[in-house]
Amino acid sequence: MTNKRIVYLFPNLFKIEEFSKENKKFVRINHPGAVAVLLIKRKNFVLIEEYRPVINRTIFSVPTGKIKKRKSALTTAKREVEEKTGLIPKNLKIYVSFF
Question: How far apart are the first and last CA of the chain?
Answer without folding.
Answer: 28
